Amino acid sequence: MATTTPDRNLALELVRVTEAAALASSRWVGRGDKNAADAAAVDAMRRTMASIAMDGLVVIGEGEKDEAPMLYNGERIGDGSAPAVDIAVDPLEGTTLTAKGQPNALCVVALSERGTMFDPGPCVYMEKLAGGTDIADLLSLTDPIEDVLDRVAARREVAVGDLLVVILDRPRHAEQIARIRAHGGRIRLIPDGDVAGSLMAVWPDTGVDLLWGVGGTPEGVLSAAAIKATGGALLGRMWPRDDDERARTVAAGIDPERILAADDLVAGDNCFFAATGVTNGDILRGVRFTSTEAFTQSIVMRSRSGTVRIVDGRHRRAKTPAET
Prior knowledge:
Elements: H1 9-25, H2 34-49, E1 55-60, E2 76-77, E3 84-93, H3 95-100, E4 106-113, E5 125-131, H4 145-156, E6 164-168, H5 174-182, E7 186-190, H6 194-202, E8 210-216, H7 217-230, E9 233-238, H8 243-251, E10 260-261, H9 262-265, E11 272-277, E12 288-289, E13 293-302, E14 307-316
Parallel strand pairs: 1-3, 6-7, 6-8
Antiparallel strand pairs: 1-2, 3-4, 4-11, 5-8, 5-9, 9-10, 11-13, 12-13, 13-14
Helix pairs in contact: 1-2, 6-7
């Protein structure tokens, strides 16, 4: 009997999707062409996802249809059979990281029951704060960051100077960076990739205590799907770039001041998240090649069971799609 809700069989199907995207985009690592790397990931992800038994609706995709010929917001994907699901994708999180051969580029996809993923509408950016399960109740986007650092340090029985906060290296973060440093906190600036940053903040033994910063709203939804499986907390708040975007966000029925938790970004408790490393990173190894094989490393999670798997793949190059 066909199921109407996502089941565990979809987990490895999603890994196939992210593996295909990583294998394709990895051919462009260090070659200086981020657009070619992204196009390769999108094409491979779309092609593989089309074969999955599901009625998928892309809620978080590559943009509007006019700008994105594949995996655009609102695209239907899969073979059209049950289950009906919402899909969020970032075919290549870290296009510049890939082009420059830098760490933590990932191919990412998340899936949940139809109608459960938050649609950010016209708002491109979101302020985010993420941390592990033991400090989930201490996080706040309304309290001063100094107070949050003090609470986290006390809970973890360390000094504020022992804490490490991951932040995207952007001019818009200069004031908050200065405040964290003045309070004694340490900062790791990353050039791109705040899904990877969110994972670092909740994953054990990375040395990272928090992620803070204004990054893409799609990455916020993807991070929420992962955090619902791994544990921890993610808080988000819309960050309109100007008055026009704020007005359009409000017109879309979204309160820009509302604090969104992971359950607001991905409702329900039956979501899946998968990511495959393109370049070596803090969580996953990147794609590696020999003369006959390619090796991938992926992570796949399911919120209902709380299961997290690391999947090592070996791929016979003679049997994979032609490489560029």
